[in-house]
Amino acid sequence: MSASISYLTTIRFGEGAVGEIDEDLGALGISRALIVADAGVVAAGLVERVTDAVPAERIAGVFDGTPSNPTQRAAEKALDLYRETGADGLIAIGGGSPIDLAKAVALMATHEGPFDSYAAVLGGIPRITAAVAPLIAVPTTAGTGSEVGRAALVTLDDGRKLGFISPHMIPNRAVCDPELTYGMPPGLTAATGMDAISHCIETYLSPRFNPPAEAIALDGLARAVASLPKAVEDGADVGARREMMIAALHGGLTFQKGLGAIHAISHPLGGLEEPSLHHGTLNAVLLPHVLRFNEAAAPGKYAAMREVVGIAPDADLAGYFEALNATIGMPKTLSEMGLPRQAIPPIVEGALKDHSVPTNPRALDAASVKALMEAAY
Ligand SMILES: [Zn+2]
Predict the structure, then answer these.
(1) Residue ranges of the Alcohol dehydrogenase iron-type/glycerol dehydrogenase GldA domain (predicted)?
(2) Of 3.40.50.1970, 3.10.180.10, 1.10.3720.10, 2.60.40.420, which CATH number belongs to 3-180?
(3) How far is the CA of 49 from the centre of ligand 1 (A)?
(4) Model confidence, pTM
(5) Tell me: the pLDDT tens digits for 23-33?
(6) DSSP annotation string for 217-268
(7) pLDDT digits over 112-169, tens only?
(8) How far, in Å, is the centroid of ligand 1 from the Cα of 142?
(9) Does domain 184-376 have CATH number 1.10.10.60?
(10) How far apart are CA 228 and CA 181, in angstroms?
(11) Å from CA of 198 to ligand 1 middle
């Protein structure tokens, strides 16, 4: 039996939870759902886990063309299918990309005018209304937290990677079934797990006042550092998979505090067409450097994080995460990931415009972002 938790949105959590998704469609009044996925999710048989649990007439169609980083172009294609098939709601199945793409479709299907006018940095937050189409998110990785997050990150036709942010963008339901992550390979388990850890750390360090979110972030951090090495080493470790899925959810539940420098830098890096860089891997590489940079701005919080991860009060927290990265097979540097050095200046510019900048605990400017990138290079 899956647990029912209501916090920000309604979450169905537990092994086998996806078998009960028809109840969620009914509760939201969705009679024909467009499934948004990607080729990998289809190949892994995860779309079938949903379609097997729902009467055929309730599925309008399957869009499997989500790219590794969501684009406006792909969202418009999915929107065409949504309209052609007479869909009245969406089920996103996958990691952050299909979930973010489905959020963009839910917005486009119900909001007139140019898509970029709804971007957060262009003043779009108050323009997004409750009319957003109903969406059920089914995460198949344990990392992004997008299933309970209010943002969709989308690369526009002109190359800008922008955040579309509103409480109305939070999926109306999240169905979190750890069984869907059992087949995830070690590399992706590690990368998505480090994304979850970076969410817990960055939201915890954000200066916005929100003690309940901070308590959630610390609990998520504790669970993730305890279980990620186990989940990477043995993908069939049911307990570790469950812990990682709930830790990823924790990270998403605290997005309302805002993220920081790690995400400000990894967002424009993820918008590059070449090389295509994984969001979670980028965050893993950036994390130790950003931790060193921010420490002076939040010493009390660093003490709490040392306690939570189980190291001595005078131990090096950044060094702890460098060791964790090495244990789970993450690369050490951006150059190792294939980033050319000449990509750094435009990324610094993009990072400073990111919506995560204001909630980094220490002020960011061009010199500090460049120094962080050089350190990680
Ligand atoms: Zn992230």
Answers:
(1) 9-178
(2) 3.40.50.1970
(3) 26
(4) 0.93
(5) 999 999 999 99
(6) HHHHHHHHHHHHHHHHH-TT-HHHHHHHHHHHHHHHHTGGG---HHHHHHHH
(7) 999 999 999 899 999 999 999 999 999 999 999 999 999 999 999 988 888 999 999 9
(8) 11
(9) no
(10) 13
(11) 7
